[in-house]
C-alpha cells in the first residue's frame, strides 16, 4: 500500500528442517524479503542451504549479527534460543524466534527481558494463527459475529508420532505439541487462561510412557473471561493432520475444518468416499508460515509491534507447565501457581 | 394465521400407491384436512384404505362427487385422469390431479378446458416444487439473489428402473420421468421453454430400447428469457435417488444437493466415507407431498389460485413431446412445432 | 424376519408432550404396535389423546395395568416414574420408561430392583442411541472400524433454554440435559465411566444461576477402558439443535454431524450460504423415537433383553451426580464416590 | 524411483505470464529440472526473467535451440506455436507446447506432422488433467469404480471475462475456453467425441457479441462409446473459479468439486456461511501446472511417450470448430464434417 520499497534482509540461524523452510520462504515467496546470511553450527548444512539459495554463508553468529541485517530468524534447537535471542537483541536486530523460547520459565524470562530492554521487534513462531481457516475463527470472534465466546473446542492430532529421542528433550506433549493449542485457545478466545485441568494417557507408543510422556491427552482451560476451552491431542491420526478449531458464543459458532487432500469424490452403492487430510507438515501449513512472515515484515515496515508478542511466547509455556502439574497431581491447577513457583 | 377453521374435506379417487400416500397425508399429517371419501375401481383396495384410515368408502365416482366434499384428489392411472377431471369440474369440486393429466395433448386440452369453464381451483401434482431444497433454488431466483438465470442444470436419476410393463404405457422417459425436470426447469428459470434438443441412449435395460424407450438421456432447453437449461436422466443410479437442481446467474448460483441417508461419517487411512442417498421414493420426497397439500389447501382457504396451474399441467407435456421428436429427428425442435401439430 | 404376527399392545401413561409423541408413533408409525389404553391424571389430556387416536381411555393406572396389554410406556413427570415402574413390574408388563427413572439414586434403585425381581423387559428412553447418525458412530466402534476408542467428543447444545420452572425440578443441566451425553459417551465408548471432572458457567440466563443451575458446561470423563471423553453443553445455540458425536481411535474417527434443515445452497460473491439446523425437537429426533420403539418391540417379539438396560438407566444418573459434586468441589470425582455415598 | 540423476534442462520460449509461470516451476519446484535458457521476442521480458531466476538469456530461437537443452517449453502467443514446434522438432528437442497448437486446422496438422517425423516427445499443455480433483475422476473411471461412463457433466466458469482485445484473436469461447472442457470430456470419458450440439448466448458483455463471440454456452457431446457429455461455460462467475467435473456410470459417480479458499465456517441464526472459490488463476491451478511438468519429465526419463499426446492437441480443436458450426447452423454437427472440410 505505502511506498515502502527497501527489501527486508533476514539472517537465518539454523539450517535444519524448519530453518530451511523459513529461508526458502524468505528468499523466494515472501514479497520484499531476502536472506542476508545463513548460519548453522553444523557447517555443511548451512553451506548447502547458502548454495541452494545463492545467499551468503556466515562463519559464526557474531559475524551474522554484525552484518547489515534487519532481522534474524532463530531456527535452532530450543535449548539455544535464549542465548541467540539475547545476542540478537543486544545487536539491535528484530527477532523472529521459533517456538518455544525455552522449556524453562526462568530462561524464557531472561530472554524476553533482554528483548524488552533492547526494544527490538519480536515475534514468536506460532504459525497456526496465520492458517487462513484458523484465522477466520479468530476474525469471526474479533468481528463480533459470534459474541463473547462461551466454549472453545480444539482438536489437534498428528499423523505420526515423533521419534523417541525427540520426546526425551521436547518437554513432552503439553510443551511440544499442545503448546500450539494453548496459544490457539488464547488467540481465539481473546482472553488469558487462568486454570488448567489435564488428563493424559499412553495409548499409542508405550515407550513414550516409559520416557515420562503421554501420547493422548484431553485438557480443559478456564479463561479469565469465563470462556471454557476443551483441547484434545493424539500423537497419531491415521487419516492425516487433524487440526480443528471451534468457537461458540451467544451469536453462533465459527469453525475451522480440515482441508482434504483434494476435492474429488466417488459415490457408489456403498456410499460417498473422498480424500482425508494431508499427512505432510508443509502440505498442511505452508501457507501459514508464509503469512506469518508477511505479518512480521508488515509490522517492521509500519514500525508497529509484531502481532505475536512476548506475552504470547510466555503464556503457553505457563499453561503447559500447569498442564503437567495437573496430570501429576490429578487436580485442576491455576496458572498462577506455576508463575509463583 | 387467519381464523379459518373449517376442515377441508377431500375425496381420494384411486387407492394405489400414490392414492394411499395422499390419503394418509390428508387424514393424518396435513393440518386442517380430512378424507371425506375414498374410491377405487378395485373395491378391495379402496375398502382396505377406508378401513385403515377409518374414513367413508364411496361406491362409485358419482357417489363420491355427490358428497359433501371440498376437493378431490385424482390418483388413478393416467388414462383415466381426463374423465375424472371433467366429472369433478362439472361437480364443482376443487381438483388436485396427479401428473400427467394425459399423455395426449388433445385429451389434456379437453380436460383443462372443462376446468376453465367450471372455474374450479386446480393443481397438478408436481410435488418436487415443494421439496425444501429445490424450492430454495426457486426462492433464490425469485428473491433476486442470483439475478436473471443464465444457465440451469438438473440431474435426475432414479435408484431403479420401473417394470417393463410400466414403460409400455408410460409415454417413455421424456413423459414419465423427465417431465418432472421440464416442470422444474420452467419453475426455477421462471420462463417458458421454446426449444428442445434431446438425446437418448439405452445403456441399462436393453428391453426398454426394444419397447421404443431410452433409459439415459440428456436434453438442453432454450427458454424465452434466453436461459439455457441442461437436464440429464438415468433410470438407475446405484447410489440412490440423485436429484440435483442448480441455477446460475450474474449474481451467483443456487443449488439443491442430495440429502444423505444420515450424517454419520467414518474417517480412516483410506479417506472419508459417508452415506449416499435414499433409494426409497417416499424417504426422498414425502415432505414435498405434504407441502404440496399445504399449499393447495392454503390457496383454497384464501380463495387464491393454487400455485401449480393449468399451464404447468400443459407445458411439460409439450416439452416432452418435443423431446421425443428431437430424438427421432436428431435436431432441435421448437415447442411451437408440437403445439401446431 | 420370523413369522411373529401378533400386534404388541402398549398402554401409554402420561398424555403430555412426550406421551402424545409416543402414543402417535405406536398408533401410526411403528409397525405391529397399537395403543391399548391411555391414561393421564389430567383426564382431559388423556381423553383428547384417546379421541384423536381412537384408542381406549383408562380411568386409572390400575385399570390400565389390569387390561390386556403387553407393555406400558411411562411418560409422566419424572417424580412419578418409580411408582409406575413398580406397579407395572408387579403387573408383569414390559416397561418402556422415559428418562430419568428418578433424580434420586435410592428411588432409582428401588424401582430397578422391582423390575429385576419381576423379570419383566425394561427399556429406558435414551432415544438418541437410535438416531441414525449417532448410531453409526457406535456401529463404527462396534464393527472395529476405528479400533478401541481413545477420545470421544460430544457437543450438545439446545436451541432454546427451558422455562425456569422446569429448571427448578429438573435436577439441573447435568441431570436434565447432559445425562443424554453421559449415556452417549458410555454407548459410543463401550465402557463405563469411572471419573468425572465438570465445569459449569452461567452465561445465558442469570436466573438459572440463582436457581443453582448452570447453562453452559464442559465435562471430561475417564472410562474404565482408558478412553477420555469431552462433553460440552449449552442451553442456547442460536443456529438450532447442535448435537455432534465423535469417536477417535487408532484406526480413525467416526462422527455424527448436524443435519441441515434442507440441502439448498446459495453461492454468491460473499461466499457459500446454506441452512443451519432444525430448532424443533421432533424435527431433529423423531426418527430416533420411532427406532427406539422398533428396537423395543423387536426385543419383546424375540424374547430378548431390550437394548437399553437397567444399567443404562442407572449409570448416567451416577455420572450426573458426580458431575454436580465435581462442580461444587472443583475437583475430579470418582463415580464410585457417588455410589458409596 | 530409478537411479536417473541427470537434471532435465528446458529452454523456455516466451516470457509472458504463462512463460514466467513455467520457468519458475522448472527452476524451483519441479524436482530434477532446470531452465537452460529463456528467450522472448520482447527482450526486456526475457532479460528480467533470466535475471530473476539467474538463468541464461538466449539471443534468439536459433541460439536457444542450438544449446544443450533436453526440451523446450513453447509459451508464446498462439499464432507462433507452429513455427516454434517445427523448429524445435527439427532441432531434435522434446517439446512442451501450451495450448492451442493453432486455431487453424491446417496449421496444426503441419506442426504435428513435423513432430511425428522428428519422433521427438511432445506434450500439449492441458494442465487441468493434472489437477488432483479432476484427475481423480479420470482415475475412478480408469480404475473401473463407476463402470463405462454413461453421462459426463462439466461446468467451467471463469471469475472474470478476458479483455475484448483477447477475444478478437482467441478463436472465441469454444476455442479459448471450452477447449479445456472438450479435452476434459475426452479424458474423463476415455472416448473420442463424434458429434457436437452447441448453443451460445451473450448475457454478460454485449461487446463480445458484437465481436462475434458468446459469453455463455451449453454444449452436448456424443462420444464414440455412446457416452453423452454436457458442458456449460460462463465468462463470469461472481463467486470465483467454478470448475466441476462429473462422470456417471452403472457403478456410480465420480466428481471433482470446487475447493474453497479456506475451510473456516460461521454458523449463525441465519445459517451456515463459508468461503467460495479462488478467483486467482494460479491459486486454483498451480498444482496442476507443476504436476504436468512432473509427468512430462517422468516420461522423458523413462523414454515413454508423454501422457498428453498429439491427438490430444488435435481433437479438442476439431470439437471446437464443430461447436462453432453448430451454433451458426443451429443443428448437431458431426466432428467428421469439420475434418473433411
Furnish the topology, listing elements before pairings.
Four copies of one chain form a homotetramer.
Chain A: E1 8-13, H1 17-29, E2 33-39, H2 43-53, H3 61-66, E3 71-74, H4 81-90, E4 94-97, H5 105-118, E5 122-124, H6 132-142, E6 151-157, H7 164-170, H8 173-176, H9 178-189, E7 193-201, H10 206-210, E8 216-223, E9 228-234, E10 242-249, E11 252-256, E12 264-268, E13 271-274, H11 281-302, H12 310-329, E14 333-334, H13 335-340
Parallel strand pairs in A: 1-2, 1-3, 3-4, 4-5, 6-9
Antiparallel strand pairs in A: 6-10, 7-8, 7-14, 8-9, 10-11, 12-13
Helix pairs in contact in A: 4-5, 5-12, 6-9, 9-12
Give the number of helices of chain A.
13
Order of helices and strands of chain A: EHEHHEHEHEHEHHHEHEEEEEEHHEH
Q: Estimate the helix proportion of chain A, in percent.
A: 40-55%
Query: What is the terminal separation of chain A in angstroms?
Result: 47 Å
Largest interface: A-C, 33 and 33 residues
Average pLDDT for all residues of chain A? 96
What is the beta-strand fraction of chain A? Answer: 15-25%
Quaternary structure classification: homotetramer
Poorly predicted ranges of chain A (pLDDT <50, ≥5 residues)? Answer: none
The coarse silhouette of chain A is globular
Amino acid at each position: 500500500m505505502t511506498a515502502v520499497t527497501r527489501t527486508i534482509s533476514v539472517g537465518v540461524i539454523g539450517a535444519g528442517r524448519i530453518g530451511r523452510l523459513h529461508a526458502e520462504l524468505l528468499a523466494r515467496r515472501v514479497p520484499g524479503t531476502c536472506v542476508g546470511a545463513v548460519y548453522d553450527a553444523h557447517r555443511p548444512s548451512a553451506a548447502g542451504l547458502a548454495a541452494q539459495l545463492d545467499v551468503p554463508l556466515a562463519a559464526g553468529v557474531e559475524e551474522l549479527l554484525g552484518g547489515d541485517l534487519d532481522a534474524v530468524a532463530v531456527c535452532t534447537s530450543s535449548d539455544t534460543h535464549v542465548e541467540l535471542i539475547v545476542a540478537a537483541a543486544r545487536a539491535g536486530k528484530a527477532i523472529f524466534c521459533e517456538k518455544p523460547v525455552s522449556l524453562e520459565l526462568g530462561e524464557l524470562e531472561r530472554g524476553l527481558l533482554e528483548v524488552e530492554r533492547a526494544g527490538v521487534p519480536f515475534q514468536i513462531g506460532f504459525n497456526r494463527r496465520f492458517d487462513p481457516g484458523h484465522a477466520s475463527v479468530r476474525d469471526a470472534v474479533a468481528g463480533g459475529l459470534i459474541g463473547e465466546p462461551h466454549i472453545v473446542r480444539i482438536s489437534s492430532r498428528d499423523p505420526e508420532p515423533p521419534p523417541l529421542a525427540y520426546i526425551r528433550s521436547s518437554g513432552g506433549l503439553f510443551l511440544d505439541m499442545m503448546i500450539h493449542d494453548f496459544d490457539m485457545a488464547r488467540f481465539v478466545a481473546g482472553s488469558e487462561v487462568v486454570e488448567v485441568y489435564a488428563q493424559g494417557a499412553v495409548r499409542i507408543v508405550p515407550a513414550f510412557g516409559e520416557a515420562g510422556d503421554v501420547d493422548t491427552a484431553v485438557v480443559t482451560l478456564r479463561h479469565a473471561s469465563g470462556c471454557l476451552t476443551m483441547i484434545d491431542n493424539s500423537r497419531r491420526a491415521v487419516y492425516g493432520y487433524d487440526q480443528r478449531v471451534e468457537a461458540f458464543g451467544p451469536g453462533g459458532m465459527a469453525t475451522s475444518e480440515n482441508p482434504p487432500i483434494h476435492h474429488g469424490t466417488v459415490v457408489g452403492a456403498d456410499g460417498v468416499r473422498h480424500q482425508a487430510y494431508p499427512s505432510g507438515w508443509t502440505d498442511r501449513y505452508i501457507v501459514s508460515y508464509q503469512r506469518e512472515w508477511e505479518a512480521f515484515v508488515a509490522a517492521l515496515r509500519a514500525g508497529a509491534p509484531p502481532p505475536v508478542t512476548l506475552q504470547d511466547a510466555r503464556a503457553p509455556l505457563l499453561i503447559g507447565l500447569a498442564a503437567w502439574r495437573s496430570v501429576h497431581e490429578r487436580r485442576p491447577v491455576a496458572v498462577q501457581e506455576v508463575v509463583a513457583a
